Amino acid sequence: MVESMHEDVARIEELLESPLTAAGFHLESVKAVAAGQRRTLTVVVDLDESSAEPMSMDKIAESTQIVSDALDTVEIFRDKPYQLEVTSPGATRRLESPRHFKRVLGRRLDVSTKKENFKLDLEEVGDDAITGTDPVKREKRTVGLGDIVKAHVELRFR
Fold this sequence. Notes:
three-stranded mixed β-sheet, five-stranded antiparallel β-sheet, about 25% helix
């Protein structure tokens, strides 16, 4: 059962990648869980890296329709009923790859390296470094992605 679930996940990722990409989305992950009779397929979708917009409810609905239409064409969980959850990575996700940082250009980040913790108003993202302005010191700084232990968007409530 476990092996077939891994095969299902790989097949589903392959099936969803193309239609989501064509619509301007990025497939983050697919996770299949079976607990007793309950089966859940969780698909995490984000906007592609050219967009710094947050993932809106309209975009979740649009990506859910794409995922649902694609999945209707294949057998999953040996055709047993399952619950489909399509979601976004969320505002509090860890930023790890250049793609993640590109999605949050212009936002304030909380960054931790082995040496220090600081805030950074993100302005540029390269293949191996990010650049922005430290709002406390009011100076430009560049941080290598390899030096970052943890980074996430600072949440601001209005």
